[in-house]
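Ticket 4471: requesting a sanity check on a complex prediction with (2S)-2-hydroxybutanedioic acid. Repro inputs:
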Amino acid sequence: LFSAVEMAPRDPILGLNEAFNADTRADKVNLGVGVYYNEQGRIPLLRAVAEAERARIEAHAPRGYLPIEGIAAYDQAVQKLLFGANSELLAQGRVVTTQAVGGTGALKTGADFLKRLLPNAVVAISDPSWENHRALFESAGFPVQNYRYYDAATNGVNRAGLLEDLKALPARSIVVLHACCHNPTGVDLELDDWKAVLEVLREREHVPFLDIAYQGFGAGIDEDAFAVRLFAESGLQFFVSSSFSKSFSLYGERVGALSVVTSSKEEAGRVLSQVKRVIRTNYSNPPTHGATVVASVLNSPELRAMWEEELGEMRSRIHSMRLAMVEQLAAQGAKRDFSFVARQRGMFSYSGLTAEQVERLRSEFGIYAVSTGRICVAALNNSNLEGITRAITQVI
Ligand code: LMR
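Returned structure tokens:
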């Protein structure tokens, strides 16, 4: 049965964790996976999360099955976070939200549902994009293409290329867009870019799939939902995958959601029934713990305020590490202008390091980064920064 099974390549991101864990060097640093570490180099357990967990444990809540679509209080809280508490769409009952197994689970549920709706569609992702986007949509049966996005010459967006490529896609393609904190580049679209993209999507009848895994890590909770809200006002039907892995520091709990914007309440009911079928035949119904915690925090004014403060602390610590990194690289005499790092948003910096330079960082210094040159700036702290910037300066 298995004699012809070939060895699959290691996952470009999570595979790095495996290599990192096996590395015995004491001063090793993991800048590979997108995880926020605090100034002490640890993944924080947020105070708001700890409070909500304590209340849950004290309540000795039974662990029955959840509804297929997840916890209602969670799904509603997700909707308000994404679309805004006063959203017209929500008032009209046009948005279907189901709890998902992380942002990845949301993408896959959405992809499987789309495969039934548009079996011959092409999926387009940014060049570059999160490593798993291509694999995930391909595994749902779609051919996946790139649209131009990052311009290495300016460390910005290739605006003309982006619009040209979106126009050139077959009509009714599925277009995956990073709503904020673009992974891996940290380079986001500006207001006018989003408007221009929206018009092309409308003209070509493309189906937008907004992926928002870093809400609150860019400029703020509402600010980072800008694109979702712009699309909500546009009258288009679209998909949103969202995640609390980073914003709640709940990586291993797999807390995400899929939202589908439909054109009427009646349509939403039918769409929900089909999304539920996809979920039921994949993993039946979602797990309880993480989503219960998130719902408790978002629905309690005190815990919510505590969470927003903690999220703000994470956001500003990342920003200060960006500034410190630029400064340190210059101080170390790096023969390259790294000022763009300070302008990038979210957890990542597309550093411009080549695969060979990344490999040298790993083998000579025990510093792990993605081979594309993506580094997780949320893993920098005042203790490891000097060593990391010195190593980068040496390999370039
Ligand atoms: C990342 O890009 O590092 C994160 O989104 C984690 C993952 O699942 O790849």
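Notes from triage: The longest helix spans residues 301-331. Leaving this open until the requester confirms.
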